[in-house]
Fold this sequence. Notes:
The complex is a heterodimer of chains A (66) and B (476).
Chain A: H1 10-23, H2 30-50
Helix pairs in contact in A: 1-2
Chain B: H1 4-8, H2 12-20, H3 26-44, E1 47-49, H4 52-67, E2 79-83, H5 110-117, E3 121-126, H6 155-162, E4 168-172, H7 179-184, E5 188-191, E6 212-216, H8 219-229, E7 259-262, H9 264-267, H10 274-289, E8 293-296, H11 305-328, H12 334-341, H13 348-371, E9 376-380, H14 405-419, E10 423-430, E11 436-443, H15 448-462
Parallel strand pairs in B: 2-3, 2-4, 7-8, 7-9
Antiparallel strand pairs in B: 1-3, 4-6, 5-6, 5-10, 9-11, 10-11
Helix pairs in contact in B: 3-4, 8-15, 11-12, 11-13, 11-14
Amino acid sequence: MPRANQALDPDNDSEALAELARRLRLTVTPEDLTALAQQLQVIDELEEKALQDTAPILRMDADWHD
Amino acid sequence: MTDSGALIDLSISEAAAALRRGATTSVALTQATLARIKETEPTLQAYATVPAELALAAAERADRELAAGQDRGPLQGIPIAVKDNCYSKDIRTEVGSKVYAGFLPDYDATVVAKLHAAGAVLIGKTVCHEFSCGGSDPPTRSPWDLSRFPGGSSIGSGVALAARSAFGAIGTDTGGSVRIPASINNLVGMKATYGRVSAYGVVPLAWSLDHVGPMTRTVLDNALMLRAIAGQDPQDVNSARVAVPDFAAGIDGGTAGARIGIDRGYFLYPGVVDSVRAATDGVIETLAALGADIVEVNLPELALTRETLSTIRMVESASYHRRQIQEQGHLYSPGTRATLEIGQVIPATAYVAALRARERFRTAMKALFKRETLDALITPTIPVLAPLRADVWQPRADMENGETPTDGFVHHVYPANLSGQPAISAPAGFSPDGLPIGYSLIGRPFDEATLYRIAYAYEKSQNWNERQPPQAYPTG
Lengths: 66, 476
């Protein structure tokens, strides 16, 4: 299945996130953005390894034992 | 029964019974609660607003109705506090924010409307962290130890209940904000199934993670409150079209045959301090002795709940606050503003990936419950005792990986927000120096009744909930 994202590099992406944050005039700190880049790296790796057939649907049901 | 000290110590179910046998009145309960608020607020600062005249008027109405035989159920005439992120018509609702300073909603949140319909007395609006996120430092103090973190973001609801300045309270829980203050304040807190309680009229933190829930001093009280506030609401698109049972019926059915899973690798990880580990083991041993089957389980997908939930929370919070920050950003405290706007830089593809990861997690959790025919998972509610207020965001001295107490909080509470499953926190004991410890049960969707039944059996075997915080607050 084609990838939705290019692979993320935490270092490069914290710089990219910082640039976007600066353009949007956000007040976030470099430390926040570094942590966010690492968080997004985890999500990206998970997407690559395990989410190919998973749709983003949250449906609650009461049949867990049926 | 006229002694106000005795009145404020009653549970909701005890007070409801006293009202119906004529041993007290709602006005007496309300006056005693207002007196307690006056006594404790200078120190504890649990309340943002106390509409005393409206509360007394509601109490008089409840007494008139009960005298006339109009019985609205167990909350009628009972003073209940509500977190200040829930709209309350013509009663100040400030969400801990200067943006909402002096705001008077022109309608009630559904949870408030349901409390009114049940005849409850809205005794006050309780302090919450600014916009229900952790970037601010409210003035509220813990009745257990003034130097300790009192919980959040339903901070005032937990403190008011522990201090006996309310009989029950409403909190909201996007990442543990009902269960964490419940645990820290020796209370029962229920985050019911996503959609069980309407969030209409509640200022959102993250729509797909937000839950409204009851906080009480006993399990039975919690079951009574949930029944009153639950139910499908056409004004909340995420509200579930599922019947609301009488959660108190069968609550004394015991735990025989209940299958309770424990993932020790995740929930008893090295960050769990000794006193919490011992208390959790004590709950497990007691439940086993009461007839429950304890099942060792392993759910690797738990490991990524933090990154997944955080990504969803950040984007949804940023979406809600973006325009408001553009127009009134100066009215946000710096920490809150940064927390609420960072999601603007998250790619849409990452948000969707996090939603997909949530579905994968929910599917794995469902498969585990089905495979092991589980009724619940058991966990410590949080891995640490209430930290000193100054240490909440600081790396723990006993952890080499830089983990803060807040990191530990989310480790245990995020999974149920992410999956939408019901989760209850209840008292599990005390540390040697008298700080409360809580445990949690995570259940099947819309099966809160089983969690109440298990928690009730444990509560009756130990009665930790009867211990009160120190009474001698410095006043003024």
